[in-house]
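Hey, why these numbers?
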Amino acid sequence: MANERGAKSTLKQIKTVIDSWIKLLSSKKIICNRKMKLQNASKSPDIPATEYEWFDLNENVPFEDALELTKCKLVAEMVEDRLRQAKGLLQCREVLIPCNLTMRIAKNVLKMSENEPCGLRGCVIYINLEEKNVCTRLGKVACDSETVSTFEITLNLRQDLSRWLNIRRLLPEKLLKKLGQDKEIVISEAYTLCKKKLYRSNSS
């Protein structure tokens, strides 16, 4: 009898120890899960590099923001197309444009058109390129050809000579002569915008 009681007591102790271990492990698992959730919640989402990506990924963008982005995209595309078409005028094989340059320009243009009577639709952009102390008119962009222009913006771009000079140093002189008009023009990230109104306001 004594042996049976001793065995039962031992089994009871073992069961108690097992139960306590199970509770301890369960509590640790819960704490661990909570920590993981807090860590995941505290992590900020990866912000896309460009506004295009942000617009594509964020489904809850207000309509005004989406409309503004659409306008910027259209202006950026028109400016970029005009620069691509200037290859013949510049006698070069390709015009290289820095990433997001035209989008930055478009955002500035949109900001400058906020208080205009026709907004962006009344804007005409004249594009110039400063190259070796010579300013060349590359063309113009009418944001809306069916709207009378109420103001114009002159966009002055610059050639990035530092990159072209670095390329020249790597090429033999004979090859440079053979290239001739096949050179590439690299546009600098620096630019200026000058606004001119084409009407008189009542206050003036």
